[in-house]
Specification:
It is a single chain. By secondary structure, this protein is of the alpha/beta class. The chain is built from 9 helices and 6 strands, in the order βαααααβαβαβαββα. The longest helix is centred in the N-terminal third of the chain and has 19 residues. The mean pLDDT is 94.
């Protein structure tokens, strides 16, 4: 275990709650648009719009709200009242103002690892929003480096590792998304631990089991200390 030099943490739904709040916003959106279509159809249109817009807007609250407005226009055949647009914008502001709820075991884990490894945040999303959340969480003091990535593909992790001046086998990633936090890291020769969150965005789900010598999964983040201390 002493071969690890950097321990990287995803932020959303690994350090603090995130997807729960987005699910609540989607529920409000479906209620708002319920006169036009069924909840299932509205959710499907929103998801399709989000995925189509990822290359343009990336991840995060701003892109989500823009996609929500676009989906509302499509669902209503461009007849949506301006009051609905105002409500959707308000949903975005509410998302940005949500309290930061740390997940169980996070501070215990960071306290135990701090000073023994170089700790970094490697997360997707909007730069301003992610920095705001880390500041409000009080966790910023633990981290040597904060990387807000436009995506989490193999090339993105290789770029991060290069900047950190380490080898892939010296990189240890902890996250809740098998698709974004685990698979790319394993592919480049790093180590990864999956800590599931009870809610996962459909875009982050995979349909196969991971079996890899460098992979582990634990129900709570502090269980990873068994491997690292």
């Amino acid at each position: 275990m002493t071969n690890f030099k950097v321990i990287a943490f995803d932020a959303d739904d690994t350090l603090f709650v995130n997807e729960t709040y987005f699910a609540e916003a989607e529920e409000k959106f479906c209620t708002l648009m319920s006169d036009y279509h069924s909840k299932q159809s509205i959710s499907q249109e929103l998801f399709k719009t989000q995925i189509n817009n990822l290359p343009t807007y990336g991840y995060g609250i701003k892109g989500y709200i823009l996609s929500m407005i676009e989906a509302a226009m499509a669902i209503s055949n461009n007849t949506i009242p301006v009051e609905y647009i105002e409500k959707i914008i308000q949903y975005g502001k509410e998302l940005a103002e949500k309290p930061i709820e740390l997940l169980e075991g996070v501070e215990e884990t960071l306290d135990a690892l701090y000073g023994k490894y170089k700790l970094v945040v490697a997360t997707k999303g909007d730069l301003l929003d992610q920095r705001r959340k880390l500041h409000k969480s009080g966790l910023g003091k633990y981290f040597h480096h904060i990387e807000v990535m436009s995506d989490k593909q193999e090339i993105d992790y290789l770029d991060l590792i290069k900047r950190l001046d380490i080898k892939p086998e010296e990189f240890f990633m902890i996250g809740n998304s098998l698709k974004s936090d685990i698979l790319p890291v394993l592919e480049i020769g790093g180590h990864a631990v999956h800590v599931p969150f009870h809610t996962t965005w459909a875009h982050e789900k995979i349909n196969h089991k991971i079996e890899h010598i460098n992979f582990s999964t634990y129900p709570k983040i502090n269980h990873v200390l068994v491997k690292l201390t």
